[in-house]
Design goal:
The complex is a heterodimer of chains A (about 550) and B (about 140). By secondary structure, chain A is an alpha/beta fold. Chain A has 3 domains: about 110 residues, no CATH class; about 180 residues, FAD/NAD(P)-binding domain, CATH 3.50.50.60; about 140 residues, 3-Layer(bba) Sandwich (FAD/NAD(P)-binding domain), CATH 3.50.50. In chain A, about 30% of the residues lie in helices and about 25% in strands. In chain A, helix 2 crosses helix 3 and helix 5 packs antiparallel against helix 14. The two termini of chain B are about 10 Å apart. In chain B, about 40% of the residues lie in helices and about 15% in strands. Chain B is flat and about 35 Å long. The N terminus of chain B is likely disordered. With about 140 residues, chain B is of the alpha/beta class. In chain B, strands 2-1-3-4 form a 4-stranded parallel sheet, sandwiched between helices. The chains are: A alpha/beta (about 550), B alpha/beta (about 140). At the A-B interface, helix 4, helix 5 and helix 14 of A face helix 1, strand 2, helix 2 and helix 3 of B. The structure holds flavin-adenine dinucleotide.
Chain lengths: ~550, ~140
């Protein structure tokens, strides 16, 4: 580190170079402010972690010191240097020196940029009316923002609407949804559109225009923010997967429906259940679905407790790989053990086999129990429940309309699971609930409220600041050919007096117009031709060991 | 002609929202790749000027690796086609300058593509070592 600081100090234009243990700490921030004001500096380079983490922190530090926030550059010497080259400390030090030099070179050529203030539209469109979307709409109304809830189906409530008593609290899903829907109906600030889908989004930051299709009708809506809460769907097993297709092999949603079908002892095909086997992690934690679906262990254990209460003497076998009854659901697991449920652990590569049993109508499950040294067990069951998890919807229409970032697992991606858990890279669009990955109902609701907080922070101020790192055309070099106008899908470039001109409120700052200009007359502010070349020069320079 | 090169120097163009997080993840997972690879991050692959590729190779880099958004770009629906155009224009510039086209490589690196990134860079560095040093400017 000392070597890097020394090299930085020797660079032209550098006035102060210093090392800090935790650059983002309050103490170091104050020192930076002090250095900038004492020396009247016009540039700041911070070499520490990834710009994803603290760019906003240090822009604020610059602002406090009276320096333009866009004359600060973040250099990533952690994730892209020290952590990546733990096998080559000397190489890492040399690389860090080059990266810092490039940051300095780029900052030296930076110009002060001023965000454009725009008024915001105090209305939020919530797409999807499951528990996450319903609770988000209520949250928005609580803080005085208008909400429009767009639900594809004719009914609100999503998956929870079809559930009976839920883990961990035991309240029924219908009731939970009914209460939310009732409250939503009472609020004048919430408009509900059912049987409706978003077909397009246009407009500029915090002032979007959405088109919603309801039947043959096209409705136009203005909104400052869009919250996507479109949920997920239960995994549908393939024919033959753990005996699926055999009489008596059902999925978790089918089992839930069975529990709700009547009072008293739970019956399948008219016969009260006496022996039930559950196979966990069906369609979760496998090659195609590498994730855990989070709710299913708890929901199953909870269902097993209901069955034990309604069918005294029932035998229940839980065949699992790992159990994740976290939080207060852990108590349910202990209870179900006390009520006679037997837990059998199988290996990932040695799944149980479900076959037709020898007795009429029955099923047989064969499993090797890891907890008793691989002993083979044969369980006779009236019913086998495949504990199916959640899979993402395939919703190309919405993905196209909102340009939603789809992850490798098919769920929508947030910017960062911990630091920016409901924001997406698409401006104006946040995500919550199970459309971003499997969650329990309570977790879905919590993320819905996080999306409300985000919308509140943006829209309650009434004005938002646009990123000033937009394209600009050099009118001297522009010959008015119009190639860039055609290349911008946002319509942000137009011809003014025979020269191309960028509307800073419409430009998204992608830079897609930069290489298409035959006259090299376009620059993206913050990433200008001069800055990129200066960075290349600095990075190409040799470093003395 | 070819001098025995030290570790190849590779300039990587990444993108702020898609491939750069993937490259970060490679580091946070301590997946090693040669430190001769350095990154310049831009908002979008479609904003790379072909002349920057030539410039980097002329300034002493042995290779340029474009870690592109692929189909994940949040800005431009036709980002892949645009990036392909940038690459073919850059290839034309390289061939005019007598530089081996193998010194430019593009691969889509998603925001969680840590292992593919580290593997691609290691492979590219191996390939470049075989090509020999890129000393093009005296
Ligand atoms: C069998 C089963 C049992 C469960 N048991 C429990 C339990 O006991 N405890 C627990 O905590 N969790 C349980 N869960 C999980 C729970 O259902 C989810 O956590 C919850 O549904 C997530 O809510 P959501 O609002 O994110 O999504 P969803 O409930 O999926 O709602 C999404 C809504 O968006 C709508 N939508 C989808 N696409 C569009 C579109 N393009 N435009 C407009 N609208 C759209 C859908 O129609 C739906 O109404 C269970 C799930 C299942 C399947």
């Amino acid at each position: 580190m000392a070597k890097v600081v020394e090299a930085a100090r020797a660079e032209p234009g550098v006035v102060v170079a210093r090392e800090a243990m935790f650059t983002c700490s309050d103490a170091t921030q104050s020192e930076i402010v002090q250095d900038i004001t004492d020396n009247q500096l016009d540039g700041l380079v911070v070499a520490s972690c990834s710009p994803k983490l603290h760019t906003l922190t240090f822009r604020e530090v610059a602002r406090r010191a009276g320096l333009n926030p866009y004359q600060y550059t973040q250099v990533n010497i952690r994730e892209q240097c020290s952590w990546a080259h733990t096998d080559d400390p000397q190489g890492a030090t040399q690389k860090a020196t080059k990266l810092v030099r490039a940051g300095i070179a780029r900052t030296a050529l930076s110009e002060a940029l001023h965000p454009l203030d725009v008024e915001t539209t105090p209305r939020v469109v919530v797409v999807g009316g499951g528990v996450a979307g319903l609770r988000a709409a209520l949250g928005l109304s609580d803080i005085g923002l208008e909400a429009v809830l767009v639900e594809r189906e004719e009914h609100l409530g999503g998956l929870v609407a079809s559930l009976g008593p839920m883990s961990p609290h035991g309240r029924s899903g219908h009731e939970v949804v009914a209460r939310l829907v009732e409250e939503v109906a009472r609020r004048p600030g919430i408009t509900v559109l059912t049987g409706a889908e978003v077909v397009s989004k246009a407009g500029t930051y915090a002032n979007y225009h959405l088109v919603v299709k309801r039947g043959d009708e096209l409705l136009e809506l203005d909104a400052g923010q869009v919250i996507v809460a479109t949920g997920a769907e239960p995994y549908q097993p393939a024919e033959g997967e753990y005996g699926y297709g055999l009489e008596g092999v059902v999925t978790l949603p089918q089992f839930e429906a069975l529990l709700q079908a009547g009072e008293g002892p739970v019956a399948y095909q008219g016969r009260p259940l006496r022996s039930v086997a559950y196979v966990y992690c069906v369609g979760s934690r496998d090659e195609q679905h590498p994730y855990c679906s989070r709710f299913c262990c708890s929901a199953t254990v909870h269902a097993a407790l209901q069955l034990a209460a309604r069918n005294p003497g029932v035998s229940q076998y839980h065949l699992y790989r790992d159990l994740r009854t976290y939080g207060s659901n852990e108590a349910l697991l202990s209870q179900s053990r006390q009520r006679g449920s037997v837990f059998v652990r199988f290996a990932d590569d040695d799944p149980p086999e479900v076959t037709r049993g020898t007795t009429d109508g029955g099923l047989q499950v064969t499993v090797r129990d890891q907890l008793t040294a691989g002993e083979e067990l044969r369980v006779a069951a009236d019913l086998v429940v495949l504990v199916t998890g959640l899979v993402p919807h395939d919703d190309p229409g919405l993905v196209r309309a909102l340009k939603l970032p789809v992850g490798r697992d098919g769920f929508y991606n947030e910017v960062h699971p911990k630091l920016r858990p409901v924001e997406t890279v698409v401006d104006g669009v946040s995500i919550c609930g199970t459309c971003q990955g499997p969650k329990t109902s309570a977790e879905a609701v919590t993320s819905g409220l996080a999306a409300v907080a985000l919308a509140g922070a943006l829209l309650k101020a009434g004005v938002a600041q646009l990123d000033p790192q937009v394209a600009k055309v050099d009118p001297v070099h522009c010959d008015g050919c119009g190639t860039c106008v055609a290349s911008c899908p946002f319509g942000a470039i137009s011809m003014v007096d025979g020269r191309a001109s960028v509307d800073p409120a419409g430009c998204k700052g992608c830079g897609g117009c930069v290489p298409v200009c035959p006259r090299d007359a376009i620059d993206l502010k913050g990433y200008t031709d001069a800055q990129v070349r200066a960075a290349i020069d600095a990075l190409a320079q040799g470093v003395l060991a | 002609m070819t001098t025995v090169a030290a570790a190849p120097r590779v300039l990587v163009f990444s993108t702020n929202n898609i491939s750069d997080p993937g490259i970060d993840l490679a580091g946070s997972s301590h997946l090693h790749y040669p430190p001769g690879a350095v990154v310049i991050s831009l908002p979008c692959t479609s904003g790379i000027k072909p002349s920057w590729v030539l410039y980097a190779l002329q300034r002493g880099f042995d290779g340029v690796f474009i870690a592109s958004d692929g189909d994940e770009c949040a800005y431009l629906p036709d980002c892949s086609e645009r990036s392909a155009r940038v690459v073919s224009q850059a290839q034309a510039l390289l061939s005019e300058a007598g530089i081996d086209g193998q010194r430019l490589k593009i691969a889509a690196i998603c925001s969680v593509c840590a292992e593919p990134f580290a593997r691609q860079i290691r492979q590219f560095c191996d390939d470049l070592s075989r090509l020999g040093s890129g000393e093009l400017v005296a």
